[in-house]
């Protein structure tokens, strides 16, 4: 039977909901305070939680957050509805937000729906879903270690310093820390320090008062104020000016800041997660990062592995990206064995970002339901040419047309006459390659059978 947990400090409301739950086929647990609700959650994770927010012993949102984390469907029932609570609830993944007095028919329909979905086979997993944390996917030991570190640091208030190459997913780590923390229902604000003009970054970080400078016709709240109660992610922290680093250090130490144009301090409760794509120790030596700020930020350092050190995670991620494209496009494309091997062989200097773009490009360019050589980006094509195509010696004074012909035919030969792969390595469309080969054949040059690979003739 499906299991229902009811959190409400009103005895009459609880009794009514208990009776309704049993009518709909649920076993029912009830709690009048946050502590009892959390105990019930530990004893048996419910299929559905009906929770009031204003109950003794803490914030009802804490119960909703914990219930959502174990996969329960959560519905808030409150007599004190307001927009702020509704927004927090939606961020937690709450499925519905009901204000008392509740429509019993609506609640009965909701309970029946949840009970009806229990016991059905789960939705088939897209490739990669079996190993993930938040929006990060990967089953390698390197990523499992990252997940363990996030799990340990998230519940605390520690500042975290994430170090990793571009494209490894530093912002996803920050989001996972935020969502797994007690601040999960509060704002998450991401800032790329390198993307803001140096003359504007202090204004954007701390805000300004009306009239503080020409054109400041209204008060402006900065990132710290907007992230109050939540998490502020400062990406590329080494791009921040030294003067602003001093002010940031003070905010981290005192929890107070000043808007531009005033001497009045404002208190803020913000957890900072900082990140950089370079060695922070090297940045300190080069004068890009203040040493005192570095040690204040690196209370909990977390290093993200590059994709080339994650083994078959590259295959898992590529399949996941392709699954997303197939779902959006109503297709059923797949990678060929040659493409899988090419995925494993490449170093992926652009990491997950480069991989995602490569899969998208391959999907768009694919002419059938199999993604083959079109997957490879330019750097990868160079690797393949070195391994498969060898070299072509050109004479000084040779025409470009002649050089093109020799390169095309040599590449075609090294690809075993597979024109689709040849076109991908040369960086041209299959149609363009077919037209060139047709012209060479008409001119009397020896060209493999053009009719043996009709895919190149398709537009």
Number of domains: 4
CATH class of the largest domain: Alpha Beta
Mean pLDDT: 80
Assess the beta-strand content as a share of residues: 15-25%
Poorly predicted sequence stretches spanning 5 or more consecutive residues: 119-130, 376-389, 454-459
Keywords: ATP-binding, DNA-binding, Nucleotide-binding, Phosphoprotein, Transcription, Transcription regulation
Protein name: DNA-binding NtrC family response regulator
InterPro entries: AAA+_ATPase, AAA_lid_NorR, CheY-like_superfamily, Homeodomain-like_sf, HTH_Fis, P-loop_NTPase, Sig_transdc_resp-reg_receiver, Sigma_54_int
GO molecular function: ATP binding; sequence-specific DNA binding
Keywords:
five-stranded parallel beta sheet, disordered C terminus, single chain, 4 domains, 459 residues, alpha/beta, Rossmann fold, Helicase, Ruva Protein, domain 3
What does the model show?
The protein is of the alpha/beta class and 459 residues long. It has helices at residues 11-23, 34-43, 60-69, 83-92, 104-117, 141-153, 170-179, 198-206, 223-226, 242-254, 280-285, 291-297, 313-329, 337-345, 351-365, 378-389, 400-414, 419-426, 430-442; strands at residues 3-7, 27-31, 48-51, 54-55, 58-59, 73-78, 96-99, 132-133, 136-137, 160-163, 188-192, 207-208, 220-221, 231-235, 256-258, 265-267, 271-276, 300-303, 334-335, 370-371. It has 4 domains: 3-116, Response regulator (Rossmann fold, 3-Layer(aba) Sandwich); 132-303, P-loop containing nucleotide triphosphate hydrolases (Rossmann fold), CATH 3.40.50; 307-371, Orthogonal Bundle (Helicase, Ruva Protein, domain 3); 400-443, Arc Repressor Mutant, subunit A (Orthogonal Bundle), CATH 1.10.10. Helix content is 45%, strand content 15%. The strands form 7 sheets. The protein has a 5-stranded parallel β-sheet, sandwiched between helices. Helix 18 (419-426) packs across helix 19. Mean pLDDT is 80; it is low at 119-130, 376-389 and 454-459.
